[in-house]
Specification:
The structure is a single chain. The chain has helices at 8-12, 26-55, 60-69, 71-74, 77-87, 105-127, 131-139, 144-173, 178-181, 189-197, 202-228. By secondary structure, it is mostly helical. The protein has a single domain (30-186, 220-228), classed as MetI-like (MetI-like fold, Orthogonal Bundle), CATH 1.10.3720.
Length: 237
């Protein structure tokens, strides 16, 4: 290996010199991370919208629900991962399918971690929508779906984009829960970095730094792509 600025460590990422059964090429780790992040964005928004909408209407139930939903912020991600393993370490219903051995457990863990951020991002935007605008649109004959598209969506679109970015980046960089629930054959980029750091030698350290650089680049590109998905004129109300 050369010292200083070099691309040798990046090329070494594609070589399994020790014939390790846990070796994963960089592009596979990138694909795993992006797949988990995409599912995390979808799940967190599907759960975040109804919960954030419910929290905009204060009541006894919402006062109890709010601190409960914020628990992942105060709990260790490792504790969350251990809890998921204990909870899902048994067949689902009458089938032989065990979620603990499925890659689906990873985006579920990431969604639980990202959900408080998504809710806190969406809630103020949903609470700022004036009811008079919805009522006016309904009086003009707009269907509930049309009301949501014409009134709600332009107001909450920017918050939705921010929530998507939050959940995407949290999933890409999450390590604590992933270290317990991820399958060895489907590692994420942070898990791949940890594998290199757990081995002695300068070569492994250099590969870990190269993989960390790839992680930063993937995060940056992902955020830029999500930003490009914003509809023209959205969020200008």
């Amino acid at each position: 290996m050369h010292y200083g600025l070099t691309g040798d460590y990046y090329s070494e990422l594609f070589i399994n010199r020790n014939d390790s059964i846990f070796y994963v090429p960089p592009f596979k780790a990138i694909g795993n991370s992006l797949g988990y992040a995409g599912l995390t964005v979808i799940l967190s928004l599907l759960l975040g919208f109804p919960v954030a909408t419910a929290l905009t209407h204060p009541g006894r139930l919402t006062r109890l629900l709010d601190p409960l939903l914020m628990l992942p912020l105060g709990a260790s991600a490792v504790t969350l991962g251990l809890g998921l393993i204990i909870t899902f370490n048994k067949p689902i219903f009458a089938s032989q399918f065990m979620l603990v051995s499925s890659p689906l457990l990873v985006p579920i863990a990431h969604t639980i971690i990202a959900l408080p951020f998504v809710i806190r991002t969406l809630q103020p935007a949903l609470a700022s929508i004036p009811d008079r605008l919805r009522q006016a649109a309904a009086m003009l004959g707009a269907s509930p779906r049309r009301v949501w598209l014409a009134v709600d969506w332009p107001i909450v679109s920017r918050a939705t984009l921010s929530a998507a970015v939050f959940s995407f980046t949290i999933s890409l960089g999450e390590f604590g829960a992933s270290s317990l629930v991820v399958r060895p054959e489907y590692p994420t980029l942070p898990i791949a970095i940890a594998r290199f750091l757990s081995l002695p030698g300068g070569l492994n350290y250099g590969q870990a730094m190269a993989m960390a650089t790839i992680l930063m680049v993937v995060c940056g590109i992902g955020i830029l792509l999500i930003e490009r998905l914003r509809l023209p004129g959205a969020g200008e109300f």
